[in-house]
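A note from the maintainers: we've had questions about how concatenated examples are separated. There is no special marker in the raw files; a new sequence line simply starts the next protein. For clarity in this README we add a label.
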Amino acid sequence: MKKKIFKALQLFAFDSNAYCDFTSTAAKAIAGKDILLCIWSLDGSQLLAISGQQGLTINRSADTIEITSKDTQGGWKSYLAGMKEWSIDNDGLFVPNDESHKILSQAFNSGDPVCIKVVDGKRKIGMFGGLAVVTDYPIEAPHDDAVTYSITLSGMGEFGDLSLDPVSPDTMPDGTAAIEPLTVVSVAGSSAGASSVYVNPAKEGSDKYFYKTGAAPLAYPSYGEVISQTEWDGSSEISGLTAGNQIMIIETDSDGKALKAGVATITVGAD
């Protein structure tokens, strides 16, 4: 029943996407300015965005192993992918007193690896992560321009793709972790001021649901924030609502700490 409701709402959303097609490739593109290279403090307690960063290139490649033989069909060479490697090139304005550059300088001098993470700062999700060594760290100081740095981080082992294997919590450089999204739908309930609310995906294990309502936009909680709003069992109609306001469903762990959240515009039953 819930799946049918979601499909029906998606079918007629935004006038069937006649002029506001959020499914288009362009609408899903991300801006390079939102992608940040971050480095973990040496004790792993803090994720720091590298200060002054401007350019960022993520390099991934694999060795090429030729397996061509005399009986290869059509005279075309054949290859296998061999060992993989990765590196990151980053440059920007040099901020010597910033903690991130102190960690990079220390790692360059000692030869010890650093733990890095690439994040989408706008969507607050991790993209890549892994261990790397600092193999190049020049600083340029022209007489007519700002002091700049460039750095090459050469990967040690796997470069984790966090879009394929997400982590939780997904820590951001501002010290918060990204709260995971929920899809929330509100449909008219069986009585005036009541709404049937559907959430996808459903909560897990001993997790709990809480909700809050109000005029748009409702503020999202931080990951791990203790929630004090009204608890909800996940199936009962919610009453006393105002049509056109928003309702936010917050999924928490058993201790009431926020894990996921989503918002819908409230639809209520008629008088």
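[label: protein 2]
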Amino acid sequence: MSVAKKKFKKVTTHSLQQMKDQGEKISMLTAYDYTMAKMVDAAGVDCILVGDSASNVMAGHETTLPITLDHMIYHASAVVRAVDRALIIVDLPFGSYQGDSKQALNSAIRVMKETGGHAVKLEGGIEIIEGIKRILTAGIPVMGHLGLTPQSIYKFGTYSVRAKEVAEAAKLKEDAIALQEAGCFGIVLEKVPAELAKEVAVMLDIPVIGIGAGSGVDGQVLVFHDLVGMTHKFNPRFLRRYLNLYDDITGAIGQYIKDVKEVDFPNDNESYPS
């Protein structure tokens, strides 16, 4: 006999744990501004990630490294104002937590106080455990991030799949256990072999959210702009496009330009009479 899934009016970290325990997959998307977040939340997504991928998508940088804590607070504040239901998780950007647990705590406190977000996400494993523990002592929920960690792209030198070798896969599992034991409420696994990701999801009690990590994990996350086809030149294997907004938007703008040039816009119905 199937068990009815609980409907959450407001998603919390506890809700995500219940979803994993019940076998219900977790949906997550990125959002970086009020208008976008309003649509994502209205559609019923479980989690919104205010990702440091805003550095790429919103600011046009090659990597996530240039985005600052102030930038992240700006984006997250806009998202929080739009959202009624989803759990909002905010990335701590590069340079705001690595190597200094006190700085990690201060950065997380700023995010929580100045944005109204619900949790923070940090990239890395055992090497950042002290920072994670310090953040958790302040009562701030933390999500981990393992596998391809974009803030370390210059160390990796490539965006290719991580943990394909035995040693790196073993290190990933070790890190995942350490994050859970430290008190993280969940982990993102990015661009790792599907079988390894499934093993980690089964091994851990906390939810594991995948991006490029197969279907055996507890949920999925994508970048909103990728999902709706606004970033039309980005074509990784893991991406499924549900719309092709790049063509739709450029087509609409092209029609607007034509209408203006030909004095078709505005017409009488779009003008105010005297």
